């Protein structure tokens, strides 16, 4: 523990008798002082003793340090001597190694020609056996030494090829025996390789393949290997899956057998594509090529997709430097005859299929499609009839049918979607935008022109004249369905067409075509504004049938129990239904535009209707109640202008009941101050008491 002087003194005082209050003893400072003095002396003696011991140890340490330094110097000298000896030894070893290498080179220079001479002697011996016509050497008679025999035959064959033809003729037996033996041995090696492959002996296959590598028949060995690999590999219905499994299995094995595995595997894949897959594709497509375009296109898309998927799996293997180009050429070789005229088949099928879908729908409605709105006399008569109410013949009765079908639209869009998918997969990248535009044109022709546009034209032709009673306004239903359908069309345009043409000049062409379609439909929808005339006509019929002159000039002024007239109730009910129908049928700014037009016409109708009657005081109050109800109805339009018009009309109706003395004050009010005085006068004239001198005087 660390030494603390205060604690040490405390413990010393505590142990000294009389040094503290322990046991009730009295404190004795003399004894404590004496004890301290004695203890100090003891500590001084101890300090001197320890100091002497320290000095002795320091002297001993200095002595040992000198001895150690002397020993280190001696070791350094010994190390320098050893290092010099090592350098001398290293130089001597280098000298000896140089001599040994030189001697080795001399020995190799002598031994190499000797080995060549020995090899040449052996070849001459074997050559001599071929000349004699008897092969006596063990290497030719022992079937287990076929590898050595093959090496000899290969060398003799190369020598024979280097000799001139005249020299070969001198050895009449050689041309008969050596080529024959070469061929026989080659066949024997291939047979041995085949047997080893059937037995699954990879090591033996590798040995034989290494021997055959220098023979002309090496390629035949590879062909035999490829042929045997495919035996029993294509037993299921899915040839593509079988091919992938086969290549996966061979890829693991081919590296253990051949020295050039990537070449062998590439040759196997080429054989699979050019034989198995090409035959399978031809069988699947030729069956439907002329008889069933739909099935032909489905099969072509499916087969091409599965082939490209197989190609993607094969990209994992080592097939050489440019495997992407290699596989692409194989796919092209299979499908080129089908892809050249693909788009013509696609357009032809899409055209016939779309026409059939439309015709089947019209047949289900017992409807004979007619030519409407072509700009001829019939079209001119129809437009004049709608705008002038002249009796130029009845409008076309559609019996409430819109001639728009969600099912037809879904079928057309589904067919086009599949066509876009096939186009994306089967078209050459350079032809893709052009082909996609042709498919889009088919969709425009049959969906937009033949179906939507025809329904709009039919709906326009079916709009009744404004003086028709109980007319059914089906055109708004046509607008509603056409709007929904066009949203689906626009979604397919963005989802399926745009990705195919987004980076090509065809993009602007497609956008312009789409814009033209929208503008053409908007023109027809604008022409359908004549529907508002029919609505106003229906309101006129209701007012004419339900409004009575006695409503605003009752016989008993004190016994009026109704809050507003029956005509007002029915008109407001009819208007609310039409407003709701317009909101459902249209969207965006079109809703506000149509409702504003309807609201303005509705206000004009009520304004002119009110001017047809004379009003007593109680009748004027009832007219104000009617206009208040019309104003509530106008709030449903949510158009500020319409609400302002009815607010002003409500203020005008106050002129029917206000006291004569207050007429000028009311006319100068905020809502009426800016109106023409003739308008104000026309309303005041409707009062029953207008001709009284007092009223005329006050108003003038």
The helix-strand sequence is: HHHHHHHHHHHHHHHHHHHHHHHHHH
Q: Quickly give the CATH architecture of the domain at 551-698.
A: Up-down Bundle
The major β-sheet equals:
none
* Helical amount: over 70%
* Beta-strand fraction estimate: under 5%
Shape: flat
CATH topology of the domain at 551-698: Methane Monooxygenase Hydroxylase, Chain G, domain 1
User: Helical region count?
Assistant: 26
- Count the strands? 0
CATH class of the domain at 551-698: Mainly Alpha
Mean model confidence by pLDDT: 80
Helix and strand content put the structural class at mainly alpha
End-to-end CA span: 125 Å
Q: Rg, please?
A: 57 Å
Contiguous runs where pLDDT drops below 50 for at least 5 residues: 167-178, 373-378, 384-394
């Amino acid at each position: 523990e660390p030494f603390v002087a205060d604690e040490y003194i405390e413990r010393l005082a505590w142990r000294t008798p009389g040094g503290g209050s322990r046991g009730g003893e009295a404190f004795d400072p003399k004894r404590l002082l004496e004890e301290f003095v004695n203890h100090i002396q003891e500590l001084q003696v101890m300090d001197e003793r320890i100091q002497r011991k320290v000095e002795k140890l320091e002297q001993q340490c200095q002595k040992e340090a000198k001895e150690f330094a002397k020993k280190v110097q001696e070791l350094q000298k010994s190390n320098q001597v050893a290092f010099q000896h090592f350098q001398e030894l290293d130089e001597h070893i280098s000298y000896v190694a140089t001599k040994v290498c030189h001697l080795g080179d001399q020995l190799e220079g002598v031994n190499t020609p000797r080995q060549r001479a020995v090899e040449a002697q052996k070849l001459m011996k074997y050559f001599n056996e071929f000349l004699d016509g008897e092969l006596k050497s063990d290497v030719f008679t022992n079937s287990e030494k076929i590898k050595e025999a093959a090496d000899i035959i290969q060398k003799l064959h190369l020598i024979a090829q280097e000799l001139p033809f005249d020299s070969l003729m001198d050895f009449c037996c050689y041309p008969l025996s050596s080529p024959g033996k070469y061929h026989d041995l080659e066949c024997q090696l291939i047979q041995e390789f085949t047997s080893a492959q059937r037995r699954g002996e990879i090591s033996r296959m590798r040995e034989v393949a290494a021997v055959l590598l220098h023979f002309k028949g090496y390629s035949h060995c590879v062909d035999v290997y490829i042929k045997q690999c495919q035996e029993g590999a294509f037993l299921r219905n899915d040839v593509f899956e079988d091919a992938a499994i086969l290549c996966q299995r061979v890829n693991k094995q081919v590296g253990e057998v051949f020295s050039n595995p990537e070449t062998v595997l590439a040759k196997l894949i080429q054989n699979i594509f050019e034989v198995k897959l090409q035959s399978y594709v031809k069988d699947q497509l030729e069956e439907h090529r002329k008889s069933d375009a739909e099935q032909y296109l489905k099969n072509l898309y499916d087969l091409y997709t599965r082939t490209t998927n197989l190609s993607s799996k094969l990209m994992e293997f080592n097939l050489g430097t440019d495997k992407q180009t290699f596989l692409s050429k194989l796919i092209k070789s299979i499908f080129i005859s089908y892809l050249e005229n693909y788009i013509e088949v696609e357009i032809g099928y899409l055209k016939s299929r779309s026409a059939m879908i439309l015709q089947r729908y019209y047949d289900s409605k017992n409807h004979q499609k007619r030519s409407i709105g072509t700009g001829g006399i019939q079209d001119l008569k129809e437009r004049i009839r709608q705008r002038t109410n002249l009796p130029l013949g009845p409008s076309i009765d559609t019996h409430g049918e819109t001639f728009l079908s969600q099912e037809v639209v879904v079928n057309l869009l589904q067919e086009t979607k599949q066509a876009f998918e096939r186009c994306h997969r089967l078209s050459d990248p350079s032809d893709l935008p052009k082909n996609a535009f042709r498919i889009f044109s088919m969709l425009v022709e049959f969906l937009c022109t033949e179906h939507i546009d025809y329904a709009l034209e039919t709906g326009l032709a079916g709009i009744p004249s404004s003086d028709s009673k109980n007319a059914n306004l089906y055109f708004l239903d046509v607008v509603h369905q056409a709007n929904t359908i066009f949203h689906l069309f626009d979604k397919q345009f963005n989802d399926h067409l745009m990705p195919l043409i987004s980076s090509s000049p065809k993009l602007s062409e497609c956008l312009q075509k789409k814009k033209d379609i929208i503008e053409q439909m908007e023109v027809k929808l604008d022409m359908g504004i004549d529907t508002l005339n029919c609505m106003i006509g229906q309101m006129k019929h209701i007012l004419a049938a339900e409004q009575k002159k006695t409503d605003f000039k009752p016989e008993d002024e004190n016994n009026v129990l109704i809050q507003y007239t029956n005509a007002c109730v029915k008109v407001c009910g009819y208007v609310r239904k039409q407003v709701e129908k317009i909101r459902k049928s249209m969207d965006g700014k079109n809703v506000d535009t149509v409702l504003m037009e309807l609201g303005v016409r509705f206000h004009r109708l009520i304004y002119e209707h009110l001017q047809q009657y004379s009003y007593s005081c109680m009748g004027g109050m009832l007219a104000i109640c009617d206009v208040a109800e019309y104003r509530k109805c106008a709030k449903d339009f949510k158009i500020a202008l319409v609400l302002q018009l009815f607010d002003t009309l409500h203020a005008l109706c106050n002129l029917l009941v206000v006291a004569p003395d207050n007429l000028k004050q009311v006319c100068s009010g905020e809502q009426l101050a800016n109106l023409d005085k003739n308008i104000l006068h026309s309303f005041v004239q409707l009062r029953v008491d207008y001709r009284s001198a007092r009223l005329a005087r006050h108003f003038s």
